[in-house]
Structure prediction request, 120 residues.
Amino acid sequence: MKTILIVDDVQSVLDLIAYYLTAADYNIITATNGEEAIAKTRETKPDAIVTDWMMPKMGGLDICRKLKKNPETADIPIIACTVKNRYVDLLWASKQGVKAYVTKPCTKEELVRVVQEAMK
Prediction:
């Protein structure tokens, strides 16, 4: 069973994404901020990370940059799950190493499809 780290500072969103991915047979780890996400990634080496973009202190882009600079975590696919939906947001995320992008609110089917594609 593949393990996904979900990062979001809003507990209800974290719970919903965890519910969607648990129902799709993924093992779930959660983090409520960027620092916790970095620590859990180094500790558990998840198969993928689904992260919000806008969080206090350390957002999803910062998480992505830090993990991509570390050879031990550089290959972990990162999926942005954010309300930012402009083309420039998608382009910038791609340049930072984001493997896939889904806009909130998303359906279970959209999220699962994007996660599956990112891990190919």
In short: Residues 3-118 form a domain with the Rossmann fold fold (CATH 3.40.50.2300). Residues 69 and 75 are 10 Å apart (CA to CA).
